[in-house]
Write a structure and sequence with these properties.
This protein has 23 helices and 23 strands. It has 639 residues and is an alpha+beta fold. The strands form 5 sheets. An 8-stranded mixed β-sheet has the order 1-4-5-6-7-8-11-12, with helices on one face. Strands 13-14-15-16-17-18 form a 6-stranded mixed β-sheet. A hairpin with a 5-residue loop joins strand 2 and strand 3. The longest helix has 27 residues. It is globular, with a radius of gyration of 26 Å. The two termini are 35 Å apart. It binds zinc ion. Zinc ion binds next to loops.
Amino acid sequence: MYFGTALVSMAGALHAQVATGGRDAAAITARLQASEKQEDDFSSRGFLGAPKDTKILDSSGRVVWDTQLLGTFDDESRKTVNTQLWYQARLLSKSGIFRVTDGVYQVRGLDAANMTVIEGKSGYILIDPLGAKETAAAALKLVRGYLGDKPVVAVIYTHPHPDHYGGSAGVVPMADGHPAVPVIAPTGFNQAVLDEQVLLGNAIGRRGQFQFGKGIGMGPKGSMGAGIAVSIAQGQLTLVPPTVLVDHTGEKITVDGIELEFQLTPGTEAPAEMNIYIAGSKVLCLAENAAPTMHNLLPPRGAEVRDARAWSQYLDEAEKLFASRSDYVVLSHGWPRFGREPARQFIEDQSDLYRFMHDQTVRMINNGLKPDEIAETFALPDGLADKWYDASFYGSLKFNVRAIYQRYIGFYDGDPAHLDPLPPVVAGRKFVAAVGGAQRVIDQATLAAGQGDLRWAAEMLDHLVVSDPANQPARTLLADVYTRMGYGSQNAVWRNIYLTGAAELRKGAVGSNILAGNSNLFANISATRIFDILSTRVDPDKAAGLNLSVRVQLSDTGEDLLVSLRNSVLRSEKFDGQATDASLSMPKQSLVDIVRYSQGLSSVKSDRVSGDQTGLAKLFSVFKRPDPSFPVVTSVLNP
Ligand SMILES: [Zn+2]
């Protein structure tokens, strides 16, 4: 999508990088630009006001959000930002409270997601309480300032991604430690929070730094947001667990005089997700199932591949269920669609987008094309390619079609040469030798970069840098190439990835793992799940030959488990009177600390220990915490 054959010079790089499949890129770009006015109108419509302070602070005075993160969008800023991305970032930067229609409002631009506000008879129903306690509280303050000081009567999570529930503790009224109002979420919410956040948290957190450009600064020389949102708030992530789970499509719940009708959309953008129809106002909330950008079927930070066909089918169902009675569509990210026909057209176009990607990728797979060949030639039809909201600002067409390939037939492309590839460092050394040495690679890469062939320059230099990370001229040259690729990217995530890669080549790893400090999640996890996570931390060298079973009782939660280790596999099950080598009682926090810090037994706070102490100490010494700052632009493995 971004660096196709169109990218031949820096001058052209910032403008026309639309996947064209051989068609006229300029014509498609012109049609895209024609829709900018429409998006500008929709993203401003109903603006009531912005918060007085552009910055939101936490209790220690640290800035967790700034509505001016991306700067002022002046002419200077255009020089280092792709034209369409510049415009998209400007649209996403509009912040404040907006009236959608009578009784329905949105707070936008105060965090990654939107908070949608429904006025009930006596108070406010909030859909998606943002991603941090502080931003959620600031949003609610803004709502009360403009609409009146009324209580929150219900909170709804559309899906289990942290930017949509992390601010819950800032807005949900509590009584005796429990929510005093209904907290509504789709069925499967709790499990999905854990599955997506915890098991792969370390890798996804580290790779997330690249995806979201954490550590490169914000603005025209750094991150221009994520294409679907400006940034992620740096405040306190909280989760008030849901009290009401919606378990079927068509379910209706009346809260504070407002009838809400739900459509479950599991396995789309999230494992559990739902759309919400607000009958009284003729407003359809499409959660994150639709957005003013193509979404990710596979976010580059890493995830299981999402189901493009199901995604499209649920949008079709939404159109059938609601379009004929919806005058407005609101979204969890970005701005609304106003009017019945624009709303319907939007749903249809987003559905067609995912279905077209799915069907045509499958067609190409069946015709023998390999993933990179599909990515290179894939082009949207005119009716989708010229829609602003179908463009690759967050998700990317090239990445998504490769994701569909991966979902259906895996990472192997069928070529025998790719059955047993050499690891990057070895392949790098051999490539450099075959070309004729490091200087020759640098010369060739300089030549390619000078001709605008940045992808080939990057590919050659990557071989050199990976095989010889100390080669400073190669690192500098590759960093320059990545910078140019970043500045040219229409896709905000690709821009972040290239610029973060460049920064790491120049200065070493930047930023910190964005999930590493997240302890709140663990508080809600069962002991069995914590041991499942611990089993993925077992170091087989340390566990070699160990065969142990231990009874573990959690003194505060009452959980009572049999934990066994054999063949370096750790299992846990309900304790049922089995014989064990030792037993141990401890508070749950101690178990959480083992996961977070991989502590040995000696540093674990235990209430009671009995049986084979040596075995027990060994059991708690086999875990190895993953490195939260593992190298990405170079290789962990250096054979
Ligand atoms: Zn989101």
